[in-house]
Amino acid sequence: MFFDRFKNFKSYKTETTPCRIKLSSNENPFDLPQWLKDRIGEAVKNIPFQRYPDPTSMELKEVIADFYGVKPENLVLGNGSDELIQLLTIIIGNPDKPVMYPVPTFPMYQVSADIVGKKKIEFPLDKNFQLSREKIGEALEKKPVLAFFASPNNPTGNSFDRALIKYVADRGVFTVVDEAYIDFSDKEDFLSEALNRKNLVVLRTMSKIGLAGIRLGVLLAKEDVAKEIDKVRPPFNITYPTQVIGRIVLSDGRQVIKEQVEIIKRERKKMLSELSRIEGVQVFPSDANFVLIKVNDGNDLHKRLIEKGILVRNMSHLPYMENCLRVSVGKPEENEIFIEVLKELVK
Ligand SMILES: Cc1ncc(COP(=O)(O)O)c(C=O)c1O
Known about the structure:
The protein is of the alpha/beta class. It has helices at 34-45, 58-68, 80-91, 108-116, 133-141, 162-170, 191-196, 223-231, 240-252, 254-276, 298-307, 332-346, and strands at residues 21-23, 75-78, 99-103, 120-124, 146-150, 174-178, 200-205, 217-220, 282-283, 290-294, 310-314, 324-328. Strands 2-8-7-6-5-3-4 form a seven-stranded mixed sheet, with helices on both faces. Strands 1-11-12-10-9 form a five-stranded mixed sheet, covered by helices on one side.
């Protein structure tokens, strides 16, 4: 009886099958260099582990603010952006007001709404995975209070039409632009909108640029908006190790991140071009650190790739994603092996 509400609840699914080549979670494939790890090791050794961390994460916030060219007052930090998505779903508007988001997209918007018990307005992307004014108009008629747009979108990889995201914000809906993959995109971001509007915030994460293990997500907003959201954040959500490691990597390791992102972008270009030449594989454009492909039998190919030691994400369970696989950009040698094996398997 206590859990009746969750009888049909679909948890967030992730791929955990151990494989030689892991291209399933859109992580940065490169680890940190040893000199940076040594610096981290030294600092972690000196953490007073019996103490709670700084509840405001102030020193880390100063480094992140500098990283994004904003003020610490513009930031709310989360235990991954997952936590921030859930927090926003809980706090924005009254519980009886619905949440809107396009499908297919990042499943956490659906998962969070289901946990909180908020109604969902799911509306389809068009055949190019782009937002459509018509579908947005229909969604808005149902009076949502909160909208999520992942741009670049996961799992499709493309960026959304800015004008349509603004259109939603202009109708008074609290609009979250989830820019988890923006570091890999050459398109304009929504940062200045977030710093100037009362009903639009941007989400970023350190997970895609090399720090998935420390769980650090960032919300960027106008100062008074950030202050309201920060009020309801769990007090010690950013652990002591995360505060220490984040500070070091985002200051001393900035160049490392930049160089790794450049390699990933170069590799993506190479992968897109090679995939487009394989018969039986349809590949979609990507502004992210992964590519989406469509094949004849996605479930079978997913299984056979695992047999060859390669793990990619099977997207077939999501709406409009039949026979689609999402492949993270890996290290150059991993991408080469993936392409070779794929060619062999779809022959
Ligand atoms: C669009 C999008 N937002 C947020 C996240 C979650 O990021 P984090 O690791 O910071 O919780 C992901 C992870 O895949 C994502 O694809």
